[in-house]
Amino acid sequence: MSQDLNDDGYVLSRTPREYERLRVQAERWAPFTDQVLARAGLGSGMSVLDAGCGPGEVMRLMGRRVGQDGVVTGVDIDPEVGAYGLKRLQGEEACNFNFHTADLLSGETVPGAPFDMVFCRFLLIHMDDPIAMVRRLAALTRPGGVLVAMDYVIAAALVAPPDPVLVRGIEIMNLTLAAAGRSLDAGARLASWFREAGLPMPHGTDLHGKMVVTYPDLQLAEGVAGFGPKAVRLGVATEEEIAALPDRIRAVAARGEHCYHSPTVGAAWTWVGNPATA
Predict the structure, then answer these.
(1) What is the pLDDT of residues 11-59, one digit of tens each?
(2) How many DSSP H helices and E strands does the chain contain?
(3) Which residues contact 266 (CB under 8 A, 6 or more apart)?
(4) How far apart are CA 236 and CA 231, in angstroms?
(5) How far apart are CA 191 and CA 225, in angstroms?
(6) 8-state DSSP, 14
(7) pTM (2 decimals)?
Protein backbone atom coordinates (compact mmCIF):
# COMPACT_ATOMS: atom_id res chain seq x y z
CA MET A 1 0.00 0.00 0.00
CA SER A 2 1.39 3.42 -0.91
CA GLN A 3 2.37 5.52 2.05
CA ASP A 4 3.51 9.05 2.83
CA LEU A 5 5.95 7.97 5.56
CA ASN A 6 8.30 5.03 5.25
CA ASP A 7 9.73 2.78 7.92
CA ASP A 8 12.74 1.96 5.72
CA GLY A 9 14.12 5.52 5.96
CA TYR A 10 13.23 6.70 2.46
CA VAL A 11 12.66 10.44 2.93
CA LEU A 12 10.22 11.10 0.08
CA SER A 13 6.63 9.88 -0.01
CA ARG A 14 5.43 6.85 -1.96
CA THR A 15 2.28 7.88 -3.79
CA PRO A 16 1.13 7.88 -7.44
CA ARG A 17 1.82 11.63 -7.51
CA GLU A 18 5.39 11.02 -6.36
CA TYR A 19 5.90 8.20 -8.87
CA GLU A 20 4.96 10.59 -11.63
CA ARG A 21 7.39 13.19 -10.29
CA LEU A 22 10.14 10.57 -10.32
CA ARG A 23 9.29 9.72 -13.92
CA VAL A 24 9.49 13.37 -15.00
CA GLN A 25 12.73 13.80 -13.08
CA ALA A 26 14.17 10.74 -14.82
CA GLU A 27 13.28 12.11 -18.25
CA ARG A 28 15.07 15.36 -17.50
CA TRP A 29 18.27 13.55 -16.53
CA ALA A 30 18.00 10.94 -19.33
CA PRO A 31 20.56 12.47 -21.75
CA PHE A 32 23.22 12.74 -19.05
CA THR A 33 22.43 9.28 -17.70
CA ASP A 34 22.68 7.75 -21.17
CA GLN A 35 26.03 9.49 -21.64
CA VAL A 36 27.30 8.01 -18.37
CA LEU A 37 26.09 4.51 -19.29
CA ALA A 38 27.93 4.76 -22.62
CA ARG A 39 31.15 6.03 -21.05
CA ALA A 40 31.00 3.30 -18.41
CA GLY A 41 30.89 0.69 -21.18
CA LEU A 42 27.30 -0.56 -21.31
CA GLY A 43 26.83 -2.34 -24.61
CA SER A 44 25.09 -5.03 -26.61
CA GLY A 45 24.34 -8.35 -24.94
CA MET A 46 25.25 -7.31 -21.40
CA SER A 47 23.32 -8.06 -18.23
CA VAL A 48 22.75 -5.00 -16.08
CA LEU A 49 21.10 -4.26 -12.74
CA ASP A 50 19.36 -0.98 -11.93
CA ALA A 51 19.37 -0.85 -8.12
CA GLY A 52 16.58 1.30 -6.72
CA CYS A 53 15.06 1.43 -10.19
CA GLY A 54 11.97 3.46 -9.28
CA PRO A 55 9.65 3.97 -12.27
CA GLY A 56 12.02 2.22 -14.69
CA GLU A 57 13.09 5.06 -16.95
CA VAL A 58 16.79 4.21 -16.64
CA MET A 59 15.92 0.60 -17.44
CA ARG A 60 14.50 1.90 -20.72
CA LEU A 61 17.83 3.57 -21.57
CA MET A 62 19.71 0.41 -20.61
CA GLY A 63 17.49 -1.77 -22.75
CA ARG A 64 18.22 0.27 -25.83
CA ARG A 65 21.95 -0.17 -25.25
CA VAL A 66 22.05 -3.90 -24.45
CA GLY A 67 19.55 -4.89 -27.15
CA GLN A 68 17.59 -8.11 -27.56
CA ASP A 69 20.53 -10.26 -26.47
CA GLY A 70 20.88 -8.38 -23.20
CA VAL A 71 18.98 -8.47 -19.92
CA VAL A 72 17.97 -5.51 -17.77
CA THR A 73 16.91 -6.21 -14.20
CA GLY A 74 15.40 -3.63 -11.89
CA VAL A 75 15.25 -3.93 -8.11
CA ASP A 76 13.36 -1.68 -5.74
CA ILE A 77 12.14 -2.02 -2.18
CA ASP A 78 8.76 -0.62 -3.26
CA PRO A 79 6.70 -3.13 -5.28
CA GLU A 80 4.21 -0.50 -6.41
CA VAL A 81 6.76 1.72 -8.12
CA GLY A 82 8.17 -1.40 -9.80
CA ALA A 83 4.74 -2.35 -11.14
CA TYR A 84 4.29 1.23 -12.36
CA GLY A 85 7.61 1.05 -14.18
CA LEU A 86 7.07 -2.37 -15.74
CA LYS A 87 3.72 -1.28 -17.12
CA ARG A 88 5.42 1.64 -18.84
CA LEU A 89 8.11 -0.65 -20.27
CA GLN A 90 5.63 -3.09 -21.84
CA GLY A 91 5.83 -1.35 -25.20
CA GLU A 92 9.62 -1.62 -25.32
CA GLU A 93 10.96 -4.54 -27.34
CA ALA A 94 14.61 -3.63 -27.08
CA CYS A 95 15.56 -6.35 -24.59
CA ASN A 96 14.43 -8.60 -21.75
CA PHE A 97 13.19 -6.64 -18.71
CA ASN A 98 12.82 -8.09 -15.21
CA PHE A 99 11.78 -6.53 -11.92
CA HIS A 100 12.19 -7.87 -8.39
CA THR A 101 11.09 -6.42 -5.08
CA ALA A 102 13.97 -6.63 -2.62
CA ASP A 103 15.65 -4.86 0.24
CA LEU A 104 19.21 -5.05 -1.05
CA LEU A 105 20.83 -4.52 2.35
CA SER A 106 18.96 -7.51 3.80
CA GLY A 107 21.06 -9.82 1.65
CA GLU A 108 18.09 -11.09 -0.36
CA THR A 109 19.02 -13.00 -3.51
CA VAL A 110 18.77 -11.02 -6.72
CA PRO A 111 17.98 -13.32 -9.67
CA GLY A 112 20.49 -12.95 -12.48
CA ALA A 113 23.43 -11.93 -10.30
CA PRO A 114 26.28 -11.39 -10.78
CA PHE A 115 25.80 -8.70 -13.43
CA ASP A 116 28.13 -7.23 -16.01
CA MET A 117 27.18 -3.77 -14.77
CA VAL A 118 25.42 -2.63 -11.61
CA PHE A 119 23.99 0.88 -11.62
CA CYS A 120 22.29 3.13 -9.09
CA ARG A 121 20.99 6.66 -9.42
CA PHE A 122 19.65 8.77 -6.54
CA LEU A 123 19.89 5.72 -4.26
CA LEU A 124 22.92 6.29 -2.01
CA ILE A 125 21.62 9.66 -0.83
CA HIS A 126 18.74 7.79 0.86
CA MET A 127 20.94 5.31 2.71
CA ASP A 128 21.69 5.37 6.44
CA ASP A 129 24.96 3.68 5.45
CA PRO A 130 25.85 4.39 1.80
CA ILE A 131 29.15 2.53 2.13
CA ALA A 132 27.32 -0.67 3.11
CA MET A 133 25.15 -0.26 0.03
CA VAL A 134 28.19 0.23 -2.21
CA ARG A 135 29.63 -3.01 -0.84
CA ARG A 136 26.36 -4.81 -1.52
CA LEU A 137 26.21 -3.51 -5.08
CA ALA A 138 29.82 -4.55 -5.65
CA ALA A 139 28.94 -8.06 -4.47
CA LEU A 140 26.25 -8.20 -7.17
CA THR A 141 28.80 -7.25 -9.87
CA ARG A 142 30.77 -9.97 -11.61
CA PRO A 143 34.58 -9.84 -11.34
CA GLY A 144 35.75 -7.43 -14.00
CA GLY A 145 32.32 -5.81 -14.19
CA VAL A 146 31.53 -2.18 -13.60
CA LEU A 147 29.75 -0.44 -10.74
CA VAL A 148 28.18 2.92 -11.65
CA ALA A 149 26.67 5.43 -9.22
CA MET A 150 24.98 8.76 -9.84
CA ASP A 151 23.68 11.07 -7.16
CA TYR A 152 22.67 14.59 -6.30
CA VAL A 153 24.71 17.39 -4.85
CA ILE A 154 21.56 18.79 -3.25
CA ALA A 155 23.44 21.68 -1.68
CA ALA A 156 24.08 23.12 -5.17
CA ALA A 157 20.44 24.14 -5.62
CA LEU A 158 19.79 27.88 -5.72
CA VAL A 159 17.60 30.51 -7.32
CA ALA A 160 18.64 33.87 -8.74
CA PRO A 161 17.55 36.52 -8.22
CA PRO A 162 16.42 35.24 -4.82
CA ASP A 163 12.72 34.87 -4.08
CA PRO A 164 11.52 33.97 -0.58
CA VAL A 165 8.99 31.40 -1.79
CA LEU A 166 11.42 29.54 -4.05
CA VAL A 167 14.21 29.81 -1.49
CA ARG A 168 11.90 28.31 1.15
CA GLY A 169 11.17 25.37 -1.13
CA ILE A 170 14.89 24.68 -1.49
CA GLU A 171 15.36 25.11 2.25
CA ILE A 172 12.68 22.53 3.07
CA MET A 173 14.36 20.02 0.76
CA ASN A 174 17.81 20.62 2.29
CA LEU A 175 16.69 20.76 5.92
CA THR A 176 14.57 17.61 5.61
CA LEU A 177 17.43 15.59 4.17
CA ALA A 178 19.88 16.95 6.74
CA ALA A 179 17.50 16.25 9.63
CA ALA A 180 17.09 12.69 8.33
CA GLY A 181 20.87 12.28 8.38
CA ARG A 182 21.31 12.30 4.62
CA SER A 183 24.30 13.71 2.76
CA LEU A 184 23.63 16.97 0.91
CA ASP A 185 26.74 16.39 -1.23
CA ALA A 186 26.27 12.70 -2.07
CA GLY A 187 27.14 13.19 -5.73
CA ALA A 188 30.53 14.64 -4.78
CA ARG A 189 31.30 11.87 -2.29
CA LEU A 190 31.01 8.86 -4.61
CA ALA A 191 34.76 8.35 -4.97
CA SER A 192 35.18 8.44 -1.19
CA TRP A 193 32.39 5.92 -0.70
CA PHE A 194 33.90 3.63 -3.34
CA ARG A 195 37.27 3.71 -1.59
CA GLU A 196 35.80 3.21 1.88
CA ALA A 197 33.91 0.21 0.52
CA GLY A 198 37.20 -1.31 -0.64
CA LEU A 199 36.84 -0.51 -4.34
CA PRO A 200 39.39 1.21 -6.61
CA MET A 201 39.20 4.92 -7.28
CA PRO A 202 36.74 5.59 -10.11
CA HIS A 203 38.12 5.09 -13.58
CA GLY A 204 35.56 7.58 -14.83
CA THR A 205 33.66 10.53 -13.40
CA ASP A 206 31.30 13.20 -14.66
CA LEU A 207 29.25 16.11 -13.35
CA HIS A 208 26.22 17.82 -14.79
CA GLY A 209 23.91 20.64 -13.78
CA LYS A 210 20.79 22.31 -15.09
CA MET A 211 19.74 25.93 -14.86
CA VAL A 212 16.41 27.08 -16.28
CA VAL A 213 14.22 30.13 -16.26
CA THR A 214 11.35 29.15 -13.98
CA TYR A 215 8.11 27.88 -15.49
CA PRO A 216 4.76 26.67 -14.06
CA ASP A 217 5.65 22.97 -13.72
CA LEU A 218 8.96 23.62 -11.93
CA GLN A 219 9.91 20.33 -10.25
CA LEU A 220 10.68 22.13 -7.02
CA ALA A 221 6.94 22.35 -6.33
CA GLU A 222 6.40 18.60 -6.62
CA GLY A 223 9.61 17.98 -4.69
CA VAL A 224 8.25 19.96 -1.75
CA ALA A 225 5.07 17.87 -1.88
CA GLY A 226 7.14 14.67 -1.90
CA PHE A 227 9.31 15.79 1.02
CA GLY A 228 6.31 17.22 2.86
CA PRO A 229 5.23 14.37 5.19
CA LYS A 230 8.81 13.82 6.38
CA ALA A 231 9.40 17.56 6.72
CA VAL A 232 6.37 17.81 8.99
CA ARG A 233 7.42 14.81 11.07
CA LEU A 234 10.93 16.25 11.53
CA GLY A 235 9.67 19.71 12.44
CA VAL A 236 11.06 21.38 9.33
CA ALA A 237 7.64 22.69 8.21
CA THR A 238 4.00 22.66 9.27
CA GLU A 239 1.24 20.76 7.53
CA GLU A 240 -0.34 24.08 6.59
CA GLU A 241 2.85 25.30 4.93
CA ILE A 242 3.33 22.06 3.00
CA ALA A 243 -0.28 22.17 1.81
CA ALA A 244 0.08 25.72 0.45
CA LEU A 245 3.71 25.99 -0.67
CA PRO A 246 3.66 23.94 -3.91
CA ASP A 247 0.98 26.18 -5.43
CA ARG A 248 2.82 29.28 -4.21
CA ILE A 249 6.00 28.00 -5.89
CA ARG A 250 4.12 27.42 -9.15
CA ALA A 251 2.66 30.92 -9.06
CA VAL A 252 6.07 32.53 -8.60
CA ALA A 253 7.68 30.22 -11.17
CA ALA A 254 5.02 31.01 -13.76
CA ARG A 255 6.17 34.63 -13.86
CA GLY A 256 9.49 33.51 -15.34
CA GLU A 257 11.43 36.11 -13.36
CA HIS A 258 13.99 33.78 -11.80
CA CYS A 259 16.58 31.19 -12.80
CA TYR A 260 16.54 27.91 -10.91
CA HIS A 261 19.79 26.00 -10.64
CA SER A 262 18.69 22.48 -9.78
CA PRO A 263 20.86 20.19 -7.65
CA THR A 264 23.93 19.08 -9.58
CA VAL A 265 24.31 15.38 -10.42
CA GLY A 266 27.66 13.64 -10.01
CA ALA A 267 28.57 10.28 -11.54
CA ALA A 268 31.38 7.82 -10.94
CA TRP A 269 32.15 4.31 -12.11
CA THR A 270 34.80 1.75 -11.28
CA TRP A 271 35.81 -1.83 -12.04
CA VAL A 272 34.98 -4.49 -9.50
CA GLY A 273 37.70 -7.10 -9.26
CA ASN A 274 40.17 -7.48 -12.12
CA PRO A 275 39.34 -5.24 -15.13
CA ALA A 276 41.42 -7.49 -17.36
CA THR A 277 38.65 -10.09 -17.13
CA ALA A 278 35.94 -7.69 -18.32
Answers:
(1) 776 778 888 888 888 888 999 999 999 999 999 999 999 999 988 899 9
(2) 9, 10
(3) 150, 151, 152, 153, 186, 187, 188, 190, 205, 206, 207
(4) 5
(5) 31
(6) B
(7) 0.92
For 191-247, the pLDDT digits (tens) are: 999 999 999 999 999 999 999 999 988 889 998 998 999 999 999 999 999 999 999
Q: How many residues does the chain have?
A: 278
Residue 64 has φ and ψ, to the nearest 5°, of -70, -25
H or E stretch at 60: helix 57-66
Taken in order 76, 69, 204, 155, is the CA torsion positive or negative? negative
User: Strand pairing partners for 265?
Assistant: 152, 208
Q: What is d(CA 217, CA 208) in angstroms, rounded to the nearest whole number?
A: 21
- Separation CA 272–CA 90 (nearest Å): 32
Residue of 99, 154, 100, 152 lying closest to 123 (CA atoms) = 152
Instruction: Provide the b/e sequence for 233-249 (b: ≥16 CB within 10 Å).
Output: ebebbeeebbeebbebb
| Beta-strand pair 115-121/204-208 | unpaired
What domains can be seen in the chain, in order of their start residue?
Answer: 16-272 (3.40.50.150)
Mean pLDDT of all residues in the chain?
Answer: 90
DSSP 8-state symbol, 106: G
Task: Determine contact, residues 139/254, Cβ cutoff 8 Å.
Answer: no
Which helix (H) or strand (E) segment is 23 a member of?
helix 16-28
